[in-house]
Amino acid sequence: MRRTLIWIGVVGLFFAAMFGGRSSQAETRSTSAEQRVGTLAAGRTRAVVAPVSARTTVASKDIASLKPAATLLPSRNLTTLIRRFVITLFVVAIAMLLLVGIRRVKQHLIEVLDKKRHEIPSFRFRGLELVSAQTLFRNLGRIASGAYVMIVAMVVLGTSLIIFSQFPATQGYARQVGYWVWNPIVAIVYGMLGYLPNLFYILVILVVVRFILRMITYIFRAAERGLISLEPWVQQDVARPTGLIIRVVIVVVGLFFIAPLIPGTGSTAAKGISIILGLMISFGSTSTVGNFVAGIVLMYMRPFQITERVKIGDTVGDVIERTFLYTKVLTIKNEEVIVPSLIALGSPLINYSSRARTQGLVLHTSVTIGYDVPWRQVHELLQSAAARTSHVAKEPEPYVLQTALDDSYVKYQINVHTDQASKMALIYSELHQNIQDVFNEARVEICSPHFRQVRDGNSTTVPVEYRPKDYKPPRFRVETVAAASEE
Which domains does the chain have, with CATH numbers? Predict the structure, then answer.
C-alpha cells in the first residue's frame, strides 16, 4: 500500500512538472506575442499621428519600455509554477492520507467481521434458511472489498482531475472527464429528488396496506382459534385460507396503485418485458394455476380436515398438510404422499373420519362357509369374534349380512362400528384373527380360499390344536354288494 501511494505521488509530481513546464512555455510565448502585437499596434498608431522625424524616437522608447516587462515575466511564471506545485503536493498529501485512512477502516472492518464470524446468524424467513452464516460472512467481506476498491478509485480519480486541472495543457481533458463523471451523478441526484413525492405516496400506500393486512391477519387467526365467529360466511376450518386469499387480493390491489409511481414502468421496454413474462407464466404454469384453482375449490368444499383418515384414489392415510396446490397424506406405512389438488378433485375421495366420532364408522369383512354349517351358528360365531375385538363399539351391536349364495359356500359379512378411524388397519387385523380363532374353536371350516378335496381319507382343515386328542383321519369307505347267486 505504501509503495502504491509513493508511486501515485511520484507520478502526480512528474505530470505536474511536465505539464507545468509546458504551460509556462505556452504562457511565455503567449505573453511575448501579446507584447509584440501591442507594440506593433502602438507603433502604427503613433506613426500615423507623429511626424516622420519622431518615429525613431518613439520606437526607441517602446523598445526601452519592453525590457522591464521581459525581465518581470519569468518571475511571474515561476510564482505560478510554485503555486501549482504546492497545490499538487497538498492534493497528493491529502489523497495519501485518505487512502491510508480508508485502508485502516477496511482492515478494522475485516477484523470486526472476523471476530463476529461465529456470532453472525443465518438469514431465515419463516424458519427457512435462505442464506447460511458462512455465505453471509463471505458476502459481507466481498461487499467491504468492493466498497474499498470503489472509494479508492474515486479518490484517485478526484486527485488526478484536481492535479491536471491546474495546467492549461490538460485542463480541457480534466474538465471533460469531470463532466463525464459528474453529469450522471447529478442526473441521478436530481432524479432521486424529483422522485421524492412519488416515494412519499408509495410509503403512505405501504403503511395503509400493512395496517390492513395486520388487521385481517388478526381477525382470521382469531376466527381460526374460535375466539370469534365469522359464520355463516366463513367457517372456522376455512378461516385461515380465506384470510390468505384476502391478503393476496389486498397486496395485488396495492401493487396496482404503486406500479404507476415506479420510474420506468410506463416505458416501451417495461411493457415488452411484462408481456413476455406474462406469456411465460401463462404457458409455463398451466398446471400450477389449475392446481391452485382446484385447491381453492377443495378448500371451500371441505371434504376433509387435518388429521383425518382419507382415501384419495389409491392412497389411504391421515391428512397432515393442506395447501392450495397439494394435499400431503401420511400413510399407515409412515410414507408421505403428496397429492396434487387437480388429482384430489378429480379422483374418488373417501373420508373415514368425518362421521366416525358422532355416528361411528362401519367396518366390514367377509367369510365363506359351506352349506353344511347352519347359518345361525355362523352368525353367532362372527358376532362373538367381533365382541372380542378392541375399539369395536358395543352399541350399535355388530350384525351379519349374508351377501351371496355361491355354488360351494355361503358368503357372510360381519359389520362392526368404531369411532377410531385412524386404527382401521389394527381393527381389521384383530378382527380377522378373532374370526379364525372362533371358527377353529367351533371346528367350523372356512371355505375361502377355494379348495377341493375328497373328504373321506383326508384330514380336516381345522388346525391341530383345535382337534380332539383322539382325532384320526377317516378312511375310505368302500361298500360291497353281494353278487346274486347263479341259478
Answer: 2-166 (no CATH), 170-284 (no CATH), 303-351 (2.30.30.60), 361-451 (3.30.70.100)
